[in-house]
Each structure stands twice: as C-alpha cells, then as structure tokens.
Amino acid sequence: MSSHTTPVPHTPAGPGTPYVIDPAGGCPHALNARLRAAHGAVAQVVLPGGVPGAVVLGHDALKEFLAHPEVAKDARHFPGLHDGSIPRDWPLRAFANAQGMHTADGDDHRRLRALVGKAFTARQVERLRPRVEELTAELLDGLDRAAAGSPDGVADLREHFALPLPMSVICELLGVDPEHRGRLHHLSHKVIIATDTTPAEAMAAVRELVELMGTIAATRRAVPGEDLTSALIAAREDDGDRLSEAELVGTMRLMLVAGHETTLNLISNAVRALCTHRDQLALVLDGKATWSDVVDETLRWDGPVSWFPFRYPTRDLTVGGTVIARGTPVLAGYTAAGRDEGFHGPDADRFHITRPTASRSLSFGHGAHYCVGAPLARLEASTALERLFTRFPDLDLATPEAGLPHQRSFIGNSVETLPVRLHRP
User: Is Oxidoreductase a UniProt keyword of this protein (predicted)?
Assistant: First the structure.
C-alpha cells in the first residue's frame, strides 16, 4: 500500500510524535517494545496514505478497548472515509468497507454471528477432528515426499503443510471447490496480509476476490450442500432481510481469510519457536506440557496477527492514559500486548510453554467480536504440531531463523517461507 504522502522515516518517534507505519511491515517485536517505551499503552500513528490513527499496545488497555461499549466496528463512525479527505483508492478501505460480521455492531453483529456461530461450536468443531487428522496425515506424507525429492532434503513447511491444512478445512466447511483454492489464497493474501501493495493492485485484488466469492455463492445456490455457505444462503432465502448479498459475500470472505491465513501463521510460528527452543520442545515430547500449551504460548509470544484494523471510538475515549479522539481508526496491537511485561512478567520476551498467563493472551480478540473460529484454529494447530513432531522429532530449520524472509505486512506476522529438514543430516 504505497503512501499518497511524502515518505517519512519509519522510526519510532518520541512522545507526542506519531509513528509513521512502514507498509512493508516486518518482524514487529522490537518496534512494539520501542513504541511502548516511548508512548505507553497507546501510540498515535500515521497509516499508509497519510491517514492519522492509533494503535493500542498494552494488554490491559487493549482488553478494555476491545470490549468497550463506545467502540464501534462499523465504518460509518470513521468520518475521514466519507468526507473526501481519504482517497477512494485508499487500500485499507478493504477493511473498513467490508460488510459482514467483523464490521457490524449491536443487533446486526449478533444476527450475523448467530448464523455463523452454529458451525463453530465446540461440539461442531469436535466433529471435524477425524477430517483434520486425516488431512494432517496426508499432508505429512506429501511433506516427506517433497523433502525426499529435494537434492538437499529440504521442503517448505508453509507450502506443503501449514497452508494446505487450514485452507482445505475452511474450504470444505464453506463448500468451495478445490480448483478455486490456490487463487483464493493468492487474493486473500494480497488483500489482507500484503500491506506493501500499490492502491491499484489492492483494489483489483478486492474486486476479483469479491467476484470469486460471488461465483462460489452462485454455485452453492444452484447446488446446495451440507456446508456453511449453503446454510447462510438458506437463512437468507428463508427470511430475506436476515442476510443481504453483500453480507453473505463479506461473511464468506471473512471466514475464508480468517479461517486459513491466521492458522497458517500460527502453525508456522509455533514450528519456528519449537525449533529454536529445543528445551521447550523436549518438555512437550516428554509429556511435561501439552500441545495446547504450545499453541497458547505461540499465540502470546509470536501471534499470527500483529496490528489489526479497525475500531472507532464513538466519543473521545481515554485508554491507557491516552485520549483517542472520536472517529479515529484504531489498530489492535495483538503482538505488542502479547509481550507486555506489565501483564506477562519481566520475561515476556521469552518463549516458555508453561507460562501461567499464556492462555489469557488476546490473540483471538476479546468481547463481542472474540474470534468465532478460535476452537477450530486451536484444533488444527494442536493436531498439526503433535503429528508433525511425533513423526519427525528431529525436524529443524534448514535456514537460520534470522535469514527467513518476514511477511511484508504490518497486519500479518510470520515468515514468507519456512524451509525445514525433517531428519538429522
């Protein structure tokens, strides 16, 4: 997302000086620490395109903000989006203008969440366990073949395992035919994760993604199945005002993106953490901790989403000692809150899978918009990690971690590739 303003150095500013966000992002942890030290729990920022905003960095402040009754998700509370001060091709409009559960408030949100939530109850997710285990086994076979077929015995774990597992599960849930899956990942990554794209590229990707979602919905409308898309269409047609076409496509888009991009990053980040903290891997392999502990600590220590847009105060709010003006677009600083020493202790930078506070991290959100797919993400990640390291206990990074290319994003938080060796040389 290229800026419409003169480039400004992307360095943490002192108190009172907004931080200009680098659209290319990168590993967020050092930046988060510097911003917290300079600004406290809330920092003023300049979003790509020169748009003023804020990011909430502290755990307690973010928890309060996410559940505050006077904080909205509906972009009608963002004046700059409607008064002509923000260009129509501003790429972050893709987040603000989307219609669906994630940008709705009050009764609209409850209505949409009730329709979607039925597919993500603990009981419904548990019914998916055999399919998740079956897919995991198939993909591990494929990962093994990819490594065996490589001259140096190296395979990209993201490409062969961490991506196709959640992508297959969410597409089966939504009733998406296999031929669409590669393109859907490419488009969703460009729209949601890759924040360094140009406005024209981002808007083109948004249009194509919406069109493709409409095609998928039309297919399910013509040939309904036992899938979430068919159920949402049926709910709309039973009572026409329950789900508009825009809400249907927006909800499908949310389910697709949230259902695979975040779990892809979660699995990747957990594998990196365990490979570089073999003592913690030994704890879980020896039965002294659980794979759920690994998932919780990864969500806290290196969460899959860094700074997520947007929420808007409906009046001037004081959060963490800082006033956030009404209508300000605010980012939820999940990776920053995860390493907040004030909540997680002075060793918050350490990866420690038996940490008592790990299960209380905010990586899945908090309040009314808590991630409806959290139980499925936990199932997929814990199953993937258990089967992966049980089958390949000597799995290790094939490239030093410092040399792994980080996602070019201030929203997504992971690496672009994850080359691994499955066996000791």
Answer: yes
Residue written as token pair 């991630």:
371
Strand extents, DSSP E, 34-108 = 42-47, 51-56, 71-72
pLDDT above 90 for 91: no
Strand 154-156 with 51-56, pairing: unpaired
**DSSP letter string, 225-275:** -SSHHHHHHHHHHHSTTSS-HHHHHHHHHHHHHHHHHHHHHHHHHHHHHHH
pTM: 0.92
DSSP 25: B
Burial of residue 68, with CB atoms counted within 10 A of its CB: 0-12 exposed, 13-18 middle, 19 or more buried: middle
The CA distance from 41 to 35, in Å, is 9
69 vs 82: CA distance, rounded Å: 23
In a domain, 210, yes or no: yes
Domains of the chain: total: 1
Exposure string over 12-33, b if 16+ CB within 10 A, otherwise e: bbeeeebbbbbbbbbbbbebbb
CA distance 227 to 119: 9
CATH code assigned at 115? 1.10.630.10
In this structure, is residue 2 part of a structural domain? no
| Domain extent for 235 | 19-398+407-421
Which pLDDT score, from 0 to 100, does residue 15 have? 58
Question: What dihedral angle (degrees, nearest 10) is formed by the CA atoms of 186, 338, 252, 238?
Answer: 180
3-state SS, residue 69: coil
pLDDT, position 299 = 98
In a domain, 71, yes or no: yes
Q: What is the dihedral of CA 188, 157, 175, 374, to 10 degrees?
A: -80
CA distances from 112 to 17, 61, 75, 122, 218 (A): 39, 27, 17, 18, 20
Residue 168 lies in a domain: yes
Distance CA 271, CA 266 (A): 9
pLDDT digit string, tens, across residues 303-313: 999 999 999 99
Among 169, 113, 174, 116, which residue's Cα sits nearest to residue 138? Answer: 169
Q: Residue 383 and residue 377: Cα distance in Å, rounded? A: 10
- At 239, the pLDDT band (50, 70, 90 cuts) reads low
